[in-house]
Amino acid sequence: MCKEALPVPENQTSHSSLAGASLTQLGEHWFMRTLTVGARRILWSGLLLLVTAIIAGPAQAQNQELTFSLGGIPGQWRTFQNPGGAAQISADRSFGINYGHRFLSAGIAALYGEIEFAAIPNRIITASNATVAQNYASLYVTPGLRLKLFPSSRFSPWVAAGGGYALYQESAQLSNGQNTTNKFLNRGVFDYGGGLDYRLFRFIGLRGEVRDFFSGNPNLNVALSSSTQHNVVASGGIILRF
């Protein structure tokens, strides 16, 4: 005697599909939703510029570097203009891409032009005595110069400095539940820092670095005691040399 198959409830089906999704897929989906449409356009335009520069660059061995890095930014406190008030900004992860082109070499040192991309997707803001944004995301694009010592050695320390564009995206709602009136804020940014490169193979290396993206304030929905903010990012990554 045949029995009819019982229909599976819709909510059970959706829970099963969510359970089947990998943590990697969920993480990628969350990160892409966190970045704004404008930020993603800037990021993809930057990547296209890097690929074009690599293809159009002179055919000289290992004059170009492309670095992919992961890191983080520590939490910090920002004081208000009114005495006694402060907001805490949480730590967060960072994602970075750096393109460098060596245009001058003198044996003991080499000078590179570079473009640094850094994204910080979700810094949470808390304040006990003020209405603030719930969180914000950051994107920094900074062309600059990098001076590397002992470029032919296995270990090569370097310093870098540059300036460019910062994009801040505030959360859709404030801490009291009200909607945000202006989510996007454009700022100028100056970046400086240093690091150490380690040559694994001829075309592959590792990099550890610390950079400070010094910019105007993000929009926290409250007047701060200072008009600028330090955003210190420590990261490590892999270098591809061409």
Query: Can you give the helix content as a percent range?
Result: 10-25%
At the third CATH level, what is the topology name? Porin
How many strands, which pairing sense, and closed or not: the largest β-sheet? 8 strands, antiparallel, barrel
**CATH architecture name:** Beta Barrel
Return the domain count: 1
Task: Compose a concise summary of this entry.
18% of the residues lie in helices and 51% in strands. The chain has 242 residues and is α+β, with helices and mostly antiparallel strands.
Give descriptors for this structure:
single chain, 242 residues, alpha+beta, Porin, 8-stranded antiparallel β-barrel, 18% helix, disordered N terminus
Description:
- The structure is a single chain.
- This protein has helices at residues 10-20, 23-34, 37-56, and strands at 64-73, 76-79, 86-89, 92-105, 109-126, 135-149, 155-170, 184-199, 204-216, 228-241.
- The protein is α+β, with helices and mostly antiparallel strands.
- The protein has a single domain (11-241), classed as Porin (Beta Barrel).
- Strands 1-4-5-6-7-8-9-10 form an eight-stranded antiparallel beta barrel.
- The longest helix is centred in the first third of the chain and has 20 residues, at 37-56.
- 28% of the residues are buried.
- The model is unreliable at 1-32 (pLDDT under 50).
